Amino acid sequence: MRYFLLLVITAFLASCSGGQGQDAAVSDAATADSLAQSAQVYADAPMDIEQTAQHGAHAYHVLIHREACDSLPTHTDEFGTVFADYTVRVTVRRDSKAGSVLFDRTFTKQAFAAYVPKADLQRSILDGIGYDRIDADGLHFGVSIAQPDSEGGTRLSLIIDFAGGSRITAAEAIDERAEDSPQD
């Protein structure tokens, strides 16, 4: 937004200069710098999250690695801010950090394309994948496909079973009233 204001101010000053050569050249250079800065791609730093989950006699070590990917298309919001898209690698090992690999896959938003309306998918990024819980069905993860810097988007569930298979489902409904109610 500040770059847009800088661009408007620069254009205003240029129009007020009366076409004087040196002032116009300085104004053109400032406008070019402003446009170059606005083309900056915003991306979060790479992130690693490690967790351990216990089910029966086995402990499952979960590593989630999220990072911006230069080879994926960028997304521009209504203010002209350019955002990177992300890849998320989910690795699950059985019994220790060095144990046998149960699951290892790097996801892009395209892995979830069948579950997201096409128009939403084009405007969105893979915002993240997070471990949720473990039960008899396997390890449950929440997936967020959303427009950059927004609260909305599509929420999905990724379930990794104990044989290393995976499936994607619509996210379970979140009872927001429970989050807002006071705790005893």
Brief overview, please?
The protein is of the alpha+beta class and 184 residues long.
SSE order, as H and E? Answer: HHEEEEEEEHEEEEH
**What spatial order of strands do you see in the largest sheet?**
2-3-6-7
The Rg value, from CA coordinates, equals: 23 Å
**Nearest-integer average pLDDT:** 79
Strand element count:
11
Beta strand %: 35-45%
Give the N-terminus to C-terminus distance in angstroms: 44 Å
**Uncertain segments of ≥5 residues (pLDDT<50)?**
1-37, 173-184
What is the approximate shape? elongated
The biggest beta sheet reads:
4 strands, antiparallel
Q: Which structural class fits the helix and strand makeup?
A: alpha+beta
Helix tally equals 4
The residue fraction in helices comes out at 10-25%
